[in-house]
């Protein structure tokens, strides 16, 4: 046990602690992964996420986002009435967090977000408020930093998804160009 775990007095950086927790089962005698092998796995995983650290950041999320405004449900929590997100919105939030990479350094200045949402049907409203909330702590520390946004609706019955481009407010033309290029390269509708 003492060999596989870091010394009690030495703390690992936050990201390494998360990866250590995820990879700890592989440090057993059965797998025989050494610390250098774990370090290599962690570094490889972080290398794959470098693309989001660029400005602009481009993110693609599979699934159809739920409308945050129209899908609240009434529940009692501790005997007090509350309105919470729908089951669909909560499920999408869980899937989003699994798919969305996290920037090493979050945007600290005002940002512009360009989004194309492909829905599976024509029924849902075009609503990106849930996406903007979920990008919080992944791309920017607070969604109050979003000072401009561009939304576009698309229909893809087989593959609902969202394409998101985030950049600083002064580079919004670049964000729109990149989103347009991504959509045209996909042959999007």
Low-confidence parts: 1-12
Order of helices and strands: HHEEEHEHEEH
Q: Major β-sheet, in short?
A: 4 strands, mixed
Strand order within the widest beta sheet: 1-6-4-5
What is the CA-atom radius of gyration, in angstroms?
20 Å
Number of strands: 6
- Look at the structure and give the CATH class of the largest domain: Alpha Beta
Question: Could you explain the architecture of this structure?
Answer:
The chain is an alpha+beta fold and about 190 residues long. It has helices at about 15-25, 35-50, 85-100, 130-135, 170-185, and strands spanning about 55-60, 70-75, 80-85, 110-120, 145-155, 160-170. The chain has 5 helices and 6 strands. Strand 4, helix 4 and strand 5 (about 145-155) form a beta-alpha-beta unit.
Summarize this, please?
With 189 residues, this protein is an alpha+beta fold.
Task: Indicate the topology.
Elements: H1 14-23, H2 35-48, E1 57-62, E2 72-77, E3 80-85, H3 87-99, E4 111-119, H4 129-134, E5 146-155, E6 161-168, H5 172-186
Parallel strand pairs: 4-5
Antiparallel strand pairs: 1-6, 2-3, 4-6
Keywords for this structure?
single chain; 189 residues; alpha+beta; 60s Ribosomal Protein L30, Chain: A; 2 domains; two-stranded antiparallel sheet; 24% strand; disordered N terminus
């Amino acid at each position: 046990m003492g060999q596989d775990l870091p010394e009690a007095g030495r703390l690992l950086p936050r990201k390494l602690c998360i990866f250590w927790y995820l990879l700890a089962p592989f440090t057993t005698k059965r797998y025989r992964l050494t610390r250098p092998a774990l370090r290599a796995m962690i570094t490889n995983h972080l290398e794959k996420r470098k693309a989001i650290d660029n400005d602009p950041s481009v993110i693609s999320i599979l699934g159809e986002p739920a409308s945050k405004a129209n899908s609240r449900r009434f529940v009692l929590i501790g005997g007090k009435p509350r309105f919470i997100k729908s089951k669909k919105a909560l499920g999408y939030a869980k899937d989003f967090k699994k798919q969305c990479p996290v920037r090493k350094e979050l945007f600290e200045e005002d940002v512009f977000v360009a989004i194309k949402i492909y829905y599976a049907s024509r029924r849902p409203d075009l609503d990106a408020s849930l996406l903007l909330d979920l990008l919080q702590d992944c791309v920017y520390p607070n969604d109050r930093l979003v000072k401009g946004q561009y939304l576009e609706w698309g229909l893809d019955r087989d593959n609902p998804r969202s394409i998101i481009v985030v950049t600083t407010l002064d580079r919004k033309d670049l964000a729109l160009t990149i989103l347009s290029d991504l959509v045209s390269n996909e042959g999007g509708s």
